[in-house]
Amino acid sequence: MNRIKILRFLIAFGLMFYPALSNGQTGSSQQPGLINNSQVSEPDFSMIGYATVARDGVETTTGGKNGEVIVIETLEQLIAWGAKREDNYNAETVIIKGKIEANPSVLITIKRGKDISILGDSESNGGFAELKNISLNIRDYSNVIVRNLKIHEVFYPNDCLTIDHCHHVWIDHCEFHSKIGPGIGVDTYDGLLDIKKGSHNVTVSWCYFHDHMKTILIGHSDNNGEQDKNLQVTFHHNWFSNTDGRNPSLRFGLVHYFNNYLENISDYGFAVRNGAHAKIENCHFESVNTPIATDKFKGHGYACVSGCIYTGSCTEADNQVSDPVDCEFWDNQIPYSYQLEDVQTVKSSVQEYAGVGKVKLTTSGKQFIQNNDFEVENYTFSEAEGAIRICINGSKNQEIQISVYSITGEKIYSGKAEVIQGNQQIKIPLQKNLKGICILAITSPSKKETFKLFGN
Prior knowledge:
mainly beta, Pectate Lyase C-like, Immunoglobulin-like, 2 domains, 20-stranded parallel β-sheet, 4-stranded antiparallel β-sheet, 4 helices, disordered N terminus
């Protein structure tokens, strides 16, 4: 080979690894080159995407920054904390430690409030926290961060994580999965992540979704277009593996979807429907039956696709994308800066850095410390009286909040009581009998205690 031929070869080889096009540019599909994992350095895990953009009175997503820090280690504590966050607008960070499991399924509903972070403890085994068969439903909330948390095997009809009518949400370095195989039907589990009811300014980054049938639903109904046209989500550097469909399925709203890696998908990757818009950039689809579809379901969707590669058993021809794709729509729809990763390295970086245990989380703010505001001496439930009696010793005169929940999170009783200094008995009349295991939560301004109650 003469020098001119060698030079041409080197130039052509070098172009294979030329950096991906940045925001606002388009590129054609590329064929994969060989990438050494050692070439992929640790990325910058800073928040980017719609969660960073000012809107509705929120400058950017900060979660529970500068608020109290609470450590949760038990199911009872988690249920009580979720109830405490109802109509709560104080900044707060929760650190979940270790593994918490429920049987049967438990739904934790966190509604009407703002400014929370739910973080998996980096010091726990494996460097993350884990919820099994426990569903988190966050609704009517703003400024929410969920990071380093594994949620899995949540039985139907609950999802692992639901975001309903929320804005400014960052879901980062989480893992979601169930099981698939013999005996597992399409409705054994529901969704891994649902983003619904007009939620906007949402970013989902560096998460791992796997071994599931119905992965992510964005927009829950064909009949909710007026609200769901506001849906607005950024997905980047997520790993979808061994799933069936909904990676995601998008109705009405818009999604910016870049540098994601999808492998072994038995039905479809990204379905865009009901007039929704998706900008799909520099993603790697490997052995995906239908990588991208715009007419698989009711209502044409608009998919502006560029810079993606297709390997394994799939090719670009397996896309079911029809005109119009409406790429011009995106000219003024991305008000944030981002840098596309070279599509050739997406698989390596996502497999290396997506999921839990990849980030070391530190928290700032005041540690929530339980003090001796009160001590519960004993408590009993009387079926004959239909009431709970609590013997409590108060260190000072103050007001406390008393709540009772079923093991599934249903509120049975909530009320306030005056505690005086010294010993006293408080009677809590109930409107209905307790059944099974219930949770008694007693909260003062600086202390929270939870107890198990056993009903009929």
